[in-house]
Amino acid sequence: MQIGIDKIGFFAPHLYLDMNKLAEARNIEPEKFTIGIGQEKMAVPPITQDTVTLAANAALNILDEEDKQRIDFVIFGTESGVDHSKSAGVYVHRLLGLNPDARAIEVKQACYGATAGIQMAKGHIALNPDSRVLVLGSDIARYGLETGGEATQGAGAVAMVISADPKILAIEEHHAYRTNDIMDFWRPIYSDKAFVDGKFSNEQYMAFFENIWNQYKEKSGLTLGDFEAICYHLPYTKIGLKALRTILTEADEDKQERLQTNYKASSQYNRNVGNIYTGSLYLSLLSLIEQKKDLPAGARIGLFSYGSGAVGEFFSGVLQPGFQEHLHVQQHEELFASRKEISVAEYEEIFQNTLPADGSDIELNTQDDPAAICLSGVKDHMRQYTNRAD
Ligand code: COA
User: Does domain 170-322 correspond to CATH entry 3.40.47.10?
Assistant: First the structure.
């Protein structure tokens, strides 16, 4: 039985900041951001979007009534969740009107959470072939104003339905993974911003990739020539390109060119959204399969997942016949086209406008947020959500 991605959707908030303007405001050459780091635009979440609403909006766009009945497991990968106890998956389960006979949990390991979710989903489907699992990767990446990581922030979510006989990507059997307790990036419970040793995290990303890629080749017997594309976890798009370049010479020249062209397609959405942590690798996959129109069915795609702290994994999938018919290209084109640019001053104001930290109530104005699902306030310590699609 084949198991894999049957549906995939994405959501980002409607506001963005142009990286050229951020560079100008910070007295940095724009090319450092657009070429050196490889980012054009950064999604900025208004106060009416949190990780729950981002994920719920991403899933809302792909689920039909049959999915809502058949999904019996919601796995929510995030590292910027809204509660230390209650899973964000439970909120999403309710907001989407899913069958109550379901499990709903949250998974955490930095940017690796959604990959862990997919692996769990695979096991669940193997035991329950008629089930469908909703895997979510949703995050708001916050490093702080005028910090080293500022240019690598972003916000957004990817939603995937994992099932037997998937219509988009069948996940293959071989996986290589690794854990090492390191402090390259972390966020203590008292902080709403991440701590990061940027250079060290880059080094570790590369070291994990080298180790896991070699392990994967040994386990699977495959070589780089067997891949049509490799998608990477992309905190910023330059890092994946650098990782790809370390192995490119393992393929012939034609394949090298194809891998580089496909890398460009696979980083297009990420370049215009920024870092979305757990969803980042899957946003890259979505960008590849929606932007590269001539990918053949049967093509093998490699996926490199990295979650600081750190856990990494490499696995692969094969594109299914007719997969293009099950994508939501137009919906995503409209999402990008309808976004509104904001100034650096507006971004700074939005960044600092956070929910009360002392537990007091707040009512939020959701009028300016066009998303179907919004955070409308906090009352008696409980987040209040509205769903215009109801
Ligand atoms: N034109 C073109 N490129 C330029 C440039 C210019 N004018 N000025 C600088 N650059 C290049 C640098 O040469 C460098 O490229 P290289 O990495 O190939 O050498 C790149 O831009 C970044 O410059 P650097 O000085 O290293 O940036 P930085 O000290 O601001 O740090 C990060 C960049 C990504 C480490 C930092 O933003 C960060 O900490 N981000 C969060 C952590 C993260 O995303 N980690 C990833 C692993 S999960």
Answer: yes
